Please model this.
Amino acid sequence: MTLIRATLVISLLVYALYVVLNIHKRKRFPPSPTGFPILGHLYLLAGKNPHQHLQKLAKKYGPMMYVQLGLVPAIVISSVDAAEKVLKTYDHIFASRPHSEASQYLSYGQKNLIFAKYGVYWRNMRKLCTVHLLSNHKINSFQSMRKQELQLLIESIKKEADHDRVVVDLSARILSLNANLTCLMIFGKKCMDEDLDKREFKAIVQDVVDLASTPNLGDFFPFLGVIDLQGLNRKLKDLSMVFDEFLERIIDEHVEYHDRDQTKDFVDTMMDIMQSGEAEFQFDRRHVKAILLDMLLAAMDTTASTAEWILTELLRHPQVMKKLQNELQEVVGLERMVEEPDMENLNYLNMVVNEGLRLHPAVPLFFHEAMEDCVVDDFHIQKGTRIIINCYAIHRDPNVWPDPEKFFPERFVGSSIDFRGRDFQLLPFGSGRRSCPGMQLGVTIVRLMVAQLVHCFEWELPNGIDACDLDIDEKFGMVTCREKPLLAMPTYRLKK
Ligand code: HEM
Model:
């Protein structure tokens, strides 16, 4: 009790000091909703769907909206023009990441990429990852592994589909397939529950993503970090130790049994770089572990939740599903499964995936930080301001997207807009210096999963579930997941 009271008094004093100091240097800031004393607008991040709350507020306060998150000033970006300003025109100023308590436990002392401050270290590490891990050449080297895993999934669903009216949990299947694809690519083996302290592997990864994306008071009141009032740091520390043990074991195994003939997984590649000294910057086992953890956390939920949302929309829009099946039948035929080289001829599939990424971006809010004071559209943005890009709001802006709430892949017919974010209308992977280096890999996997599941099976909703009932409630977090599993009944379509 005494600790809480003392904390409150200190917060009040620091806040008062902060307000007084700021009065003297008040400049023109973007419009802002009314906030609470001390907490400011932190409540906006604490709800279930912060991207939706911020989208509603932006309609009233504009596409550049000022919010005070505890002691941290922040600007929420909600339009194409404003996004272009921060991700292109002033990208050199806004390309850093804000302080995050979570990063202390997940980045091996700021050695990873996702949380890294902008600078020489980030640039070198990013180059290393894009050249050695996420290049087209590297992604293609895992093609046969992806084919094999998809075949296994299709075979297992086919066996079930032979029984009459079986219900398949598509959410679980997609999550599991994506976990296998990710682990095989990064670690060269599928991850089993016993690998992580006998706890369920996928659930632990999900826990870490959830904890890292829950607003931590220490991020907004730095002096509260050590007190850890929400207990988030303690939980993250525990989980990071479980991961560290796992990563150490995996690296040891790779050092011991190095099979030169096998496709090199990410551990092999990183260990080769470490041993050769070609990194041109200090690069030891801690750097290897930090990047492996980055790749695992960045790839697992994002890709699976995107594929799951697209399948949900296809179940809700049977005419789109039929059109996609017709395209697949025409290009691939019913004699065989879809293969990666088919993708370039599947235009409608690409539109379906773009539309899924638009309506359900897996990372609806992403965070940058201003590295120096600057003025954008006459508004003053001070050094250290958090820049929150609300791509969910941009993707549903009626000025850019007619009938924005509708799932309508045909809107991309004849359009040059695509997921890379070059025109700032579709930003599921961000844009500019900090854009997602795994976008090509993510899109390849999503396209493949959706194409294969739709090509091989006819899907029907179980009795009692209506297409419009399909739960589209989104869970809080960086990654928007469904709350209920996606259930559907398959009938095999292919000729063998
Ligand atoms: C559908 C799947 C995915 C989506 C929607 C997605 C989305 C994003 C977004 C929005 C960002 C932040 C961009 C910004 O701050 O401007 C990001 C960053 C990042 N993503 Fe992805 N991502 C996906 C898959 C992947 C995959 C498969 C990998 C790697 C295996 C990956 C690795 C990363 C990394 C390392 C960063 C940090 C980059 C940096 O800070 O320089 N992502 N991603």
User: Anything to note?
Assistant: The two ends are 69 Å apart (CA to CA).
